[in-house]
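thread from #wetlab-drylab

HS: before we spend reagent money on co-crystallization trials with GLP, can we at least see a predicted complex? here's what I'd submit
DV: go for it
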Amino acid sequence: MLINIFPDNDELHRAVSKEIIQLVKTKPDSVLGLSTGSSPVDTYALLVDDYKKNKTDYSSIVTFNLDEYVGLDAHHDQSYRHFMNFHLFNHLNIPADQTHVPLGTGDLDNNCQEYEALIQEAGGIDLQLLGIGTNGHIGFNEPGTSFESRTHVAPLLKDTIEANSRFFETSEEVPTKAVTMGIKTIMEARKIILLAYGSHKAAAVRDMVNGEVSEDLPASILQKHEHVALFLDEEAASLL
Ligand code: GLP
């Protein structure tokens, strides 16, 4: 694992956005795996700034997001499809049909299979962005998820529901299930960048980097990936 530690968040997001922009420029038909949550928001803002200034071309880029809440459609303001349109897609010249977010409504098992097939058809993911949950989850793969998992419907744990309730009016409104790329899907990405900042992520980051590789800490599987770069602030890196 390549570990980059930044004294401030601005530099961290600049570094991550630079990596993405460079990939988009060198391989204009790249397949990007994208994430939601608060971690990538400022990175996306920098991509939008760069697009406005430099007209970096996203017209041939294809994207696949990690996950979506079950029961929230694209119009729900807490759906991850809405999040991605709002923070990124609406501001770039990426055709809407080249952006993919798992569907959290309708026939979920079928949606999962189709999502995996679409990733394969696109030639696999060149660069996958990840955040990490405080319990070590990646995507919505909670502790205990099989390392062999592919896109599937996942129950959310109480801690995750609590952590994500800050985006909803009450914790009762937070969906209890999600559609998420599986661990195996994530591990097939050719390169992975994981962003984490804040002291609340320090224990999960420590266990991801130095702990035993175990399904109890889903992010620990990243130790087995050949091209993983962590982008951390000093607080998230404080227990390394
Ligand atoms: C959420 C998302 C993950 C995200 C993680 C961290 O539950 N499903 O993809 O990486 O939790 O979120 P945040 O970046 O808000 O800390």
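DV: Residues 187 and 225 are 7 Å apart (CA to CA).
HS: ok that's useful, forwarding to the group
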